[in-house]
Amino acid sequence: MRRKIALIGGGQIGQILAMLAAQKELGDIVILDVPDYVNVCKGKALDLMEMAPHGNYDASISATYDYKDIEGADVVIVTAGKPREAGMTREDLLNVNIKIITEVANGVKQYAPKAFCIIVTNPLDAMVYVFHKVTGFPKHQVVGMAGTLDTARWRAFIAMELGVSVADVAGTVLGGHGPDMVPLPRLTTVGGVPLTEIATPEQIEKLVNRTREAGTEIVKLFGKGSAFFSPAWSAIVIAESYLKDKRRVLPCAALCQGEYGVNGLFIGVPCLISAKGMEKIFEIKLTEEEEAQFQKTVASVTKTVSECKI
Ligand code: TXD
Predict the structure, then answer these.
(1) E strand or H helix at 233, and its extent?
(2) pTM as predicted
(3) pLDDT digits (tens, 9 = 90+) for 161-176
(4) Tens of pLDDT along 277-307?
(5) Is 140 annotated as catalytic?
(6) What is the largest CA-CA distance in the chain?
C-alpha cells in the first residue's frame, strides 16, 4: 500500500510540495485547505493527476477541507497560514497564524496521530512550538522546516560567489528562522577545502548577511507573498528522509531539552531524520563568537514564543 502524505495548506508552497511528492512517488497526496479555497486546490490536484502520464508517476492526488480525509496520514506538512508582504517581519504574522496552527494541530491530532509532522508556517520556531504544545505529540514526531532552507540558501550563495558547483558546498546554519540565524563559516567546506581558506573575510561577511536576509530579499521582489520553490524542496527532503529512512542529517527546528543549553524551545539544530522521525540532535562545540550569536537567536525565539501565551 502507498504511503499517505497530507499537505495542510494548498497555496504557493503546498502546490509545489504536491508536485514534488508526486514526482518522487512518496505516496498518495491529500491537500487540505479552507472551504473557500478548496475548489482551487481540487483544480491543482486534478492538474497534477493529468501531469502524471508525462511526469511518470503513480499517485492519487486529491483536495479537501475535511480533516477526516487525512486519516492515517504517514506525513503531514503544514503550510497553512498567511505569508509575509513587503515590509513585514515574520513576527507580524504571529497572531493570525497562531489561530490557524491551533486549528490545524487539533485536526491532525484527531485524524493523523501517528504522522511525522513538518511545520513550515511562519514565524516558524514559534509555530512549531504551538503545534507541538497543542498536539502533545512526542518530540521525535514534530520538526520545523527552516534550517534546511537557510542552509540551502547559504550553499547556493557560496556556489554563486565562488563559481563552484553547489554539490560541493557543505555546511550548516543554526538557530531560529530570522535575521539572527547563525551560518557557520568555520564548518563550511567546498570540496573538502575550508571556506575560510578560499573566501576573504569580506566575502564571508557578505555571504552571511545575504543568507540572513534571503527570505526578505525575495519578499521585496515579489511585493506580496514569500519564497515557495526552495521552501517546498527543503520540506520534501525532510519528508523523504523519514519515509525512506535515508538518515539524512538536516538542520531542523527540533525541541531541545538541554542540547545547546536550550530547554523547552524549538530551534534550528542538526538533526538525524530517520524512520523514527527526529531521531537525534547532534551537538557542535561552538566558539565563543558563535556561541554569542547563538544566544542572540535563542533570545529572539524565546521572545516570540513568550508572545504566543500558550
Ligand atoms: O522556511 C520557512 N519555514 C518558510 C516559511 C519559507 C517561506 C515561507 N514560509 C511560510 O510558509 C510563510 O510565511 C507562510 O506562513 C507559509 C505558507 O506560505 P505560502 O507561500 O504557501 O502561503 P499561501 O500561498 O498564502 O498558502 C497558504 C495556504 C492558503 O492556500 C490558505 O487558504 C491556507 O494556507 N490556509 C489554511 N489551510 C487550512 N486551514 C486553515 N485554517 C487555513 N488558513 C489558511
Answers:
(1) helix 229-243
(2) 0.98
(3) 999 999 999 999 999 9
(4) 999 999 999 999 999 999 999 999 999 999 9
(5) no
(6) 55
Q: Which grid coordinates belong to 117?
A: 509532522
Which protein residues touch ligand 1 with a CB less than 6 Å away?
8-14, 32-34, 37, 79-84, 93, 97, 100, 103-104, 120-122, 124, 145-146, 149, 177, 225-228, 231
- Across 217-237, b (16+ Cβ under 10 Å) vs e yields ebbeeeeebbbbebbbbbbbb
Q: Which of 34, 29, 31 is nearest to 14 (CA)?
A: 31
Q: What is the total residue count of the chain?
A: 310
CA 82 to ligand 1 centroid distance, Å: 5
Query: What is the whole-number distance in angstroms between the Cα of residue 286 and the centre of ligand 1?
Result: 34
What are the structural domains, with CATH classification, of the chain?
4-145 (3.40.50.720), 147-306 (3.90.110.10)
Element (H, E) at 80: none
Cell numbers that stand for 57 in this block: 508517476
- In the chain, the amino acid numbered 278 is M
